[in-house]
């Protein structure tokens, strides 16, 4: 009898802790998702909610709840929850549940399912930025993960940027943001692509802002389309008054935000008298101010290396110049500040600059002052021109920003505060790829080629050429084999070298064996004269283009190739001059014969621009014509 009672007790205990066996209501069954949200989606966000409560100038609490149904393997990245923290934030709790396709509870998130690690490990010497990563998953699709967490914040430089839809392959049932601020404290916000404006109310001496969006469908990203930030529904929020690690500030204008950055930088650009004397000696024979700046920059590159430093306020405040001078390393803030200090020591004024870096990074919103930056560089105004310096690279050409920080709005920090200016634009005539090649063709279609190519401006970065210039010969050769699209190729000799500053150029010289480059049939040789610059990608045909066409880079390609053919062969067939002119660019290919040589000249010009979606078919046809024209053949015939 005692055993029966015990068994009944344990059965009841098991049932009380097993929601599925008790017949409890199922949560988030996949069958309840509207079919329109399944289309083109790898995951469906069922619920995504944030409550951000501001408690004072420097304190806040953030609560988040997310429920995501992962439909297929492509949605696996959404099985994780990432909760970052540092000196200024503390994770109060993280919880989670896993559900199957029918909405049955499977398991809870355990402490062992959460990994705590550095968020930037491997890139930083000093760091306290960490992240807690939770994971729940199933071997059977679809399944649903539910996460909740809370973070206490002590330092409020950032208010939330809330993406109601995180990516194009994700649809959303319901997403909301609530921001609570004390009465008398201002909340600034910017709404993009929303169906509903903020709901604003007052409650218990607090002002409440609420946004909610529902039933957002996934979509396919279109070739040559705008950056996702232009398409997704987003709310950006920011304070006016704020406090970070005892530094109070105001970001209601760019001027006042720059003033706050000046406070952080104040007194950190001092160097010892011995260092100043060394810098004066280093620049003593400089012919002009630009030359003096270049000597300082090259000294920086020879003496320092980049490491990330994320330690407390160090995420925004540079280390002292004297520290960098002694240790020989620093992050973007520290190295920019150090360069500023060295220039100051030789009588040259410069400005610290905040920038959102990245080749495909969206430009900052210059009409919404806030902390939108992830990098620091230096600006040096001179009597001749403004010099821009990327201080983290040991190899970057002097005065060249390139695609990483060029052509975008930045915040320049002057003695009078912040000011938005634009970094250099690299124009079409600057971004050149000019190639000259001589090719000797034998009767079996084998080719021996010598190729000299000069890449300048933004084309200097093609295929990571700028990084390879400083690699070993072995690494360079391996890279060349990977990028040259020729079957069976053998590189007999090569040389890579760089020249120029502000608009740099790289020269690539190659001597190649290309077996069976041309095809042979009887007395004829069929040859594609475009040796190394064939376009192959044609954007997909669309029933309806939905987004603008964005061409992000202006450039010019010129390929001149001279073919020496066997003496007893003549040109039986050559295409007429090919010309394609459109609003998107120009293409020209011409073949000529002179003194037994066949010369192929191809020119392509593309200009950075933006066009309405209804121009897509015309644009696609222009690209299709380029791809087709790059495949043209000439026919050589044996005259004997």
Automatic annotation (TrEMBL):
Occurrences of domain DUF3857 (ranges): 58-219
Domain of life the protein comes from: Bacteria
Transmembrane spans: none
Domain Transglutaminase-like: 281-389
Stored SUPFAM superfamilies: Cysteine proteinases
UniProtKB keywords: Signal
Residues in the signal sequence: 1-22
A matching Pfam family: Transglut_core
Protein's name according to its UniProt entry: DUF3857 domain-containing protein
């Amino acid at each position: 009898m005692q055993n029966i009672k015990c068994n009944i007790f344990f059965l009841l205990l098991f049932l009380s802790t097993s929601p599925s066996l008790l017949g409890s209501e199922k949560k988030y069954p996949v069958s309840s998702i509207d079919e329109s949200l399944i289309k083109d989606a790898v995951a469906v966000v069922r619920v995504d909610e944030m409550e951000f409560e501001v408690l004072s100038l420097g304190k806040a609490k953030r609560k988040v709840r997310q429920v995501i149904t992962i439909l297929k393997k492509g949605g696996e990245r959404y099985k994780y929850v990432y909760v970052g923290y540092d000196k200024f934030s503390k994770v109060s709790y993280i919880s989670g549940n896993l559900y199957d396709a029918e909405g049955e509870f499977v398991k809870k998130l355990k402490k062992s399912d959460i990994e705590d690690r550095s968020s930037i490990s491997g890139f930083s010497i000093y760091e306290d930025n960490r992240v807690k990563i939770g994971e729940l998953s199933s071997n059977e699709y679809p399944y649903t993960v539910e996460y909740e967490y809370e973070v206490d914040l002590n330092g409020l430089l950032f208010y939330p940027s809330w993406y109601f839809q995180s990516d194009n392959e994700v649809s959303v049932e319901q997403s909301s943001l609530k921001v609570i601020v004390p009465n008398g404290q201002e909340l600034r916000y910017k709404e993009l692509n929303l169906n509903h404006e903020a709901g604003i109310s007052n409650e218990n001496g607090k002002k409440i802002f609420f946004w909610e969006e529902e039933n957002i469908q996934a979509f396919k990203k279109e070739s040559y389309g705008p950056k996702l930030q232009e398409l997704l529904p987003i709310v950006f929020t920011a304070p006016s008054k704020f406090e970070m690690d005892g530094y109070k500030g105001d970001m209601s204008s760019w001027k006042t935000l720059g003033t706050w950055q000046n406070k952080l930088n104040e007194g950190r650009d001092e160097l010892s008298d011995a260092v100043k004397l060394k810098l004066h000696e280093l620049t003593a024979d400089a012919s002009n101010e630009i030359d003096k700046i270049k000597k300082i920059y090259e000294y920086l590159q020879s003496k320092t290396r980049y490491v990330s430093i994320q330690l407390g306020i160090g995420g925004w405040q540079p280390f002292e110049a004297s520290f960098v001078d002694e240790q020989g390393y620093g992050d973007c803030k520290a190295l920019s500040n150090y360069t500023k200090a060295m220039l100051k020591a030789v009588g040259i004024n410069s400005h610290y600059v905040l920038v959102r870096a990245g080749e495909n990074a969206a430009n900052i919103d210059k009409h919404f002052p806030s902390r939108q930056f992830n990098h620091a560089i230096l600006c040096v105004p001179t009597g001749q021109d403004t010099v821009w310096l990327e201080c983290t690279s040991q190899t970057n050409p002097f005065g060249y920003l390139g695609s990483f920080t060029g052509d975008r709005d930045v915040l320049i920090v002057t003695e009078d505060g912040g000011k938005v200016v634009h970094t250099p634009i690299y124009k079409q005539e600057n971004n050149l790829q000019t190639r000259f090649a001589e090719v000797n063709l034998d009767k079996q279609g084998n080719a021996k080629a010598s190729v000299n190519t000069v890449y300048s401006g933004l084309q200097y970065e093609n295929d990571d050429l700028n990084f390879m210039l400083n690699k070993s010969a072995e690494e360079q050769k391996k890279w060349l084999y990977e990028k040259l699209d020729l079957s069976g190729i053998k590189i007999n000799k090569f040389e890579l070298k760089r020249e120029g500053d502000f608009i740099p150029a790289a020269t690539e010289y190659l001597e190649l064996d290309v077996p069976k480059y041309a095809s042979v049939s009887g007395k004829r040789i069929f040859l594609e004269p475009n040796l190394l610059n064939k376009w192959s990608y044609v954007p997909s045909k669309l029933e309806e283009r939905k987004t603008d066409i964005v061409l992000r880079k202006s450039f010019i390609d010129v390929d001149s190739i001279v073919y020496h053919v066997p003496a007893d062969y003549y040109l039986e067939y050559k295409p007429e001059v090919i010309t394609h002119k459109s609003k998107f660019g120009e293409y020209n290919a011409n073949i000529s014969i002179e003194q037994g040589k066949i010369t192929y000249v191809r020119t392509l010009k593309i200009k950075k621009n933006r066009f309405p979606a209804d121009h897509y078919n015309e644009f696609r046809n222009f690209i299709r014509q380029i791809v087709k024209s790059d495949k043209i053949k000439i026919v050589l015939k044996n005259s004997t």
